Amino acid sequence: MDLATRIAAIIAQKKMKQSLVAKDAGITPQMLCDMLHGRRIIRPEYINRLCASLGVSPNDLFASSSGPPSAIDARCPTTPN
Known about the structure:
The protein is mainly α. The protein has a single domain (3-62), classed as lambda repressor-like DNA-binding domains (434 Repressor (Amino-terminal Domain), Orthogonal Bundle). The chain has five helices and no strands. It has helices at residues 3-13, 18-25, 29-36, 44-54, 58-62. The protein is globular.
């Protein structure tokens, strides 16, 4: 599972809103959406901030996982939350 897919899976599993994760991490919701869809590189300086926002460690993001993530919904928000 790649990094963007793992982040999206954690957001879905914790029933978090992408816009709130982005705001908490100090990035725009569009930036996060672009990262999750491969249109923007997830730069190293964002990883710790995203981890803090998600309540996980960097090791959790890079941990290997067998099988597909469940309930991923990585759609871009259409309205600000």
